[in-house]
Amino acid sequence: MLPRHFSLPLAHASLHGQLLRPENAQRLIVVVKAHRIALHDPVAQFFMARGDAVLAAELLTEREAAYAEATQDTARLTSRLLQLLEFIREDADTQHLCLALYVNDDVSPAAVRAAARRDTQITALAAHGGLIDRAGREALQLLRTPLFYVCAPEDTYARRAWERAKTHLAGAHSEHFLASGEDPTPALTAWLSQQLTYVACKAQNNAPIR
To answer: Residue 161 region, left (φ>0) first, then alpha (ψ -120 to 50), else beta?
Structure first.
């Protein structure tokens, strides 16, 4: 099966993504990075192998990604992610699917902000690393989408950010601190699979946008 390529228009450029959707898919895993589309990501590959739809997208243009500070612009990344979620809500191939979001590093705080606003659309949010407290207290307190945070053992900054962030989390959340050399894929795929199996998918078509 070949992926469907799509683009989201910006003022002076476009964001790019790919969607792989089996005919009978009921679940959609959205894999988002600041740049470099990742259908080859091990988490994406796991869900594609079991017949789920996978959408991979980037939130920065190639030109923007050349500047290190662009990945730290949480407001811009949040805006782009909300635009992507709106595309998913309106697209005939994705609008009826139960949606889980997987992000890493710089996109993590933006994903928390977006999920806090789209909790009727996003069933689960898994984040691998990132300074998640940059989402801000308000977004952390408003978040109701279940959140799973995975952190590498050497990433002390991310771990401290998580410890600060979780004091403000009112919704369901859990964590997994990786051992040295541990592959994060099994923990991420197991948690996402559980959420997509046991958490009732939220109605997307008639959900109000907050």
So the answer is: alpha
